[in-house]
Amino acid sequence: QAVVTQEPSLTVSPGGTVTLTCGSSTGAVTSGHYPSWFQQKPGQAPRTLISDTSNKHSWTPARFSGSLLGGKAALTLSGARPEDEAQYYCLLVYSGDGEVFGGGTKLTVL
Amino acid sequence: EVHLVESGGGLVQPGESLRLSCTGSGFTFSNYWMKWVRQAPGKGLEWVATIYKDGSAEYYVDSVKGRFTISRDNAKSSLYLQMNSLRAEDTAVFYCVVGGNVGGWGQGILVTVSS
Predict the structure, then answer these.
(1) Cβ contacts of residue A97 below 8 Å, gap of 6+?
(2) pLDDT tens digits for B54-107?
(3) I need a surface site. Which of A40, A58, A59, A79 has the fewest CB within 10 A?
């Protein structure tokens, strides 16, 4: 099965903007991979932030957005807040061959 | 509000079996793909299996093929994971997840495989 890559760690200043990316060993990430993004804080279950590349859920803060950027899926956080410090995971669907999570990005707001 | 509640976890010995259950509410269960995701202690998320809305298609991560079976009962809004020939490396918190525009996760259930 494919390998999905994410930045292991990123740091953003409060109020700043940061982009997390999600790449695939099979080539460019497209909308056909239905990229999803999840946030997990210590001791909690993950929650879905973005589905199908860019669709937000009712609980997704407006400062988060999803897109495709340079052959990768991207999660952009604009106006970072201390409560955004968490682990972020992406998930790609490989039609007929299952799904693969990235290794996760630890985001620090400092 | 979407609720997913897992049950059936616990401590088992290597080679034994366990069946996880997940009951969903707050959404039309039969309209959505459902999946199981696990997280080993201190590790990242790992997709385990996905089942189509009517149960007609199933997909598994390579490491569980032939040992785990995902199934569902739409009349009971329930998802299952039958886990056979369990190994120490299957020790994890298992999450029931609904995709699409619902995007809900259960609270997770711990499965420990140890002698």
Answers:
(1) A1, A2, B59
(2) 999 999 999 999 999 999 999 999 999 999 999 999 999 999 999 888 899 999
(3) A58
Round to whole Å and give the CA distance between B103 and A51.
7
Of B50, B95, B106, the CB nearest to A99: B50
**Residue to substitute from A50, A88, A91, interface B, most B β-carbons within 10 A:** A91
Give CA–CA dist A45/B37, Å, rounded.
Answer: 11
Q: How far is C-alpha A29 from the geometric centre of its chain's CA atoms?
A: 13
Q: Choose among A51, A89, A98: nearest Cβ to B45.
A: A89
CB-based contact B77:B21 (threshold 8 Å): no
Question: Tell me: the pLDDT tens digits for A39-93?
Answer: 999 999 999 999 999 999 999 999 999 999 999 999 999 999 999 999 999 999 9
Three-state secondary structure string covering chain A: CCCEEECCEEEECCCCEEEEEEEECCECCCHHHCCEEEEECCCCCCEEEEECCCEECCCCCCCEEEEEECCEEEEEEECCCHHHCEEEEEEEECCCCCEEECCCEEEEEC
Check B35 against A98: CB less than 8 A apart: no
Interface test with A, best of B36, B94, B101 (most A CBs within 10 A): B101
